[in-house]
Amino acid sequence: MNPCRVLFICTGNSARSILSEATLNHLGKGRFEAFSAGSRPNGRVNPYAIEELKAVGIPTDGLSSKSWDRFTGEGAPPLDIVITVCDNAANETCPVLFGDFVKAHWGQPDPAAAQEAFRVAHALVLYRVTALLNLPVETMSRDALKQALDHIGTITDDGEEHA
């Protein structure tokens, strides 16, 4: 059986989407294949993201800030799930990608340039990725998967659900 392919999208593709990609690839090896991209990639992965991943033993080889264009054209890997991780609450514009995949939003604040903020951001990513790993995605209907992913996206860093 092919792995479930997940694309995490943000604006700059330097922090939240990178943390999500690396974490899901590490914890879901073989069952999931994760990618990340940005609508306006800044061209470099935030060094604090790399530090945070290395600190918890997650490989960082091959991580790069890249455009979502590589996931929309011919030869792009087929995607099963696309998750936006930008922060609507901060009036950050979330990218929109069209295709035959389940879409969900797991917004969270940009950790920006503070190392401690990356620990907090990664803790939320880890919580949400673990919830995804606990789903029986291989046997779920699209509607059930969408509903479960949307629910995961409502849980914030305080462990509470928010609409």
From TrEMBL:
Gene Ontology biological-process entries: response to arsenic-containing substance
UniProt keyword annotations, A-Z: Arsenical resistance
Pfam families: LMWPc
Gene3D superfamilies membership: 3.40.50.2300
Protein source organism: Rhodanobacter fulvus Jip2
Superkingdom of this protein's organism: Bacteria
The name this protein goes by in its record: Putative arsenate reductase ArsC
DNA-binding keyword on record: no
Phosphotyrosine protein phosphatase I domain: residues covered: 4-135
